[in-house]
Write a structure and sequence with these properties.
Elements lengths: L7 E6 L20 H14 L4 E9 L14 E5 L2 E6 L16 H14 L6 E5 H15 L3 E4 L4 H10 L4 H8 L1 H14 L2 E4 L2 H6 L12 E3 L20 H7 L9 E5 L8 H9 L2 H6 L1 E5 L11 H16 L6 E2 L8 H11 L3 E4 L8 H8 L4 E4 L4 H8 L2 E4 L4 H12 L2 H18 L2 H17 L19 E5 L12 H10 L4 E6 L4 H10 L7 E4 L4 E4 L4 E2 L1 H7 L5 H8 L5 E3 L10 E5 L7 H10 L4 E6 L3 E6 L4 H12 L6 E5 L5 H4 L4 E4 L17 E3 L4 H11 L12
Parallel strand pairs: 1-2, 1-5, 2-4, 5-6, 6-7, 7-8, 9-10, 9-12, 10-11, 12-13, 13-14, 15-16, 15-24, 16-17, 24-25, 25-26
Antiparallel strand pairs: 3-4, 17-18, 18-19, 20-21, 21-23, 22-23
Length: 716
Amino acid sequence: MKHGQEKVHLLLISVHGLIRGHDLELGRDADTGGQTKYVVELARALGELEEVGRVDLVTRRLVDESISVDYAKCVEALSQNTNIIRIDCADQVYLPKEDLWDHLDNFADNLLQYLHTENLSPHIIHSHYADAGYVGTRLSHQLSVPLIHTGHSLGRSKRKRLLASGVKRDVIEQRYNMARRINAEETTLGVADRVITSTFQEIEEQYGLYDFYQPEQMRVVPPGTDLTQFHPPLGNETDTDIAAELQRFFREPDKPILLALSRPDQRKNIVTLIEAYGESVALQQKANLVIIAGNRDEIRDMESGAQEVMTDILLSIDEYDLYGKVAYPKHHQADDVSIIYRLAAASSGVFINPALTEPFGLTLIEAAACGLPIVATEDGGPQDIIKNCRNGYLIDPLDKEMMAGKCLAVLSSQSDWKEMADNGVAGVKEHYSWHAHAEKYLNVIKPIIEKTEPVVRLDIQRRTRLYRDRAIFSDLDQSLLGDTKYLPEFTELLRQNARCCSFGIATGRRLDSALKLIKANKVPMPDTLVTSLGTEIYYGANLTRDTAWTDHIDYLWRPGRVRSLLSDVPGLRMQARLEQSRYKISYYYDAEKAPSVDDIRHLLMQHDQTVNVVFSFGQFLDIVPVRASKGLALRWYAEQWGIPLGQILVAGGSGADEDMIRGNTLALLVANRHNEELSDFIELEGVYFAKKPYAAGIIEAIEHYDFLHSCNEPDQ
């Protein structure tokens, strides 16, 4: 090794939060959470490796009466060769990370002085999060030491979540210093010799949005799991309070447990699991279902999205009459989670993760470590977990028959169950323990230290725009799909311009139905997905729901009254339950028997029902809140994200797209449009009538409007 040192010296930097080696105050505030735990466990695990001589975890020194004196200690030993080093940083009171930016230069100078005073020459600097990246970038230049970076949470993704929650753009910039954070992340990505992430999905969907994203620098090292907490059953699990709480739900408590554990979030797809279980007599005979969906006191007091999911869970249990077969406890403690896994394992059960998307899959690793075979969504991290552990099956989360079938496959053979359980325990130890994580980490950085692996840097320049400044929105069935011949070309256009142009889909389909069609046709996952005729908005591959939009459209919405008024109208027939949603009531419309659509609107208005009535394809009639439609959802998106309507290209083909097409958007109607419903647009200026259908028509309009010109222009 260089510098005359026999073993590796690692300098880890994690600036914000409360960091100490014992009794971590996880959850005390937004800054003391998963990253805090990660850096402490990483430092400990690295210090135990034979090739590592010293590990220093550097953070702020805090002298503040509101927190423990532990955080004022300059040095705290984690082991014989591993220490937490606390560096003075201007004002020593505890500050949120958003308020630290003006102090980071002072922190960097003091850290450099400390290293000189102690005569320390680390082989590697590893920064954690954007603020540490800013510090690490400076030190890397000053010391000529390679920089490794882990983002943990990225500014562009954080901004997306904040916008989805209803926080305005100017508030985000003021409160979170977002532009400063993103610029620091860009600079760090330009300097870092390696960037370590948890999953490949994280690389493509988060880092890929940055100008200085360099694929050659990215390395995936899955985080470690605490095997002292997650381990096979000890035999005393049935004596616990949580075991008694689960038992009270069951008529036959000795059956194997089919376990699902997640937040009450629509993306977790719990209702589909209940439907799969309810429609499989064989699975009901074989196992009891346990749903751990967070903690709750009163459902009516929950946040609206969670409330909707919990209500659907209870309605589905009732619909399939699953009482005595399904447990859905209101409360559990954090320490109960590992016990619940072990209870399921002791019953020869199975853990299922039916989520629509799963970036990593920590619960799958925890379950596997406890000796519980798994069935999991084929989207994202579970692919790698099951490949490494060989302890279960992947499923299409929208295929209920497959879901039930794979659960039965695990439960039906005790010898196969035992093999998968043993494989899971061994696989986690080999691939996902902290020791395994540290070894993989060392394998990533050793070639950098020894200069045996070249660092290839792309010739990259920053764009003039910090955020995306344009978007393409399309309907799904009528505008995009049909003739898929031109889909690959359209997809490639989106990929090439992804850093400046967003892609959105606006459809009348429900979320699950839309996702199924998107997947079947290999359509790229949109950045924004508007479903159920504009009543739901989701962002990104993780399908972050825009809860502010949900609250906004709830105004004057009384679905029970609407159903009552239309129940006796001739020629209207309710569509299947799968086509209904909280904010969309859907009917089949028989033109020979039903009154005109205008008469139906008039009937609802007469009875004080202020709603939007949407008629499409000559046979579908949908009622949605007055504040909801595809066009209104599009304009909400434009306002939230700061994209002018004149820089949004909108493709439509039916009456349901009418209010997306009208106004100041760059509008196009594909050649396969539904002419009867769109006859009013023939004389309308500002609408481009494509000569080609579906995706080919969208490509034609992109060229007509010269829409992607100068999309990726760098600073001059």
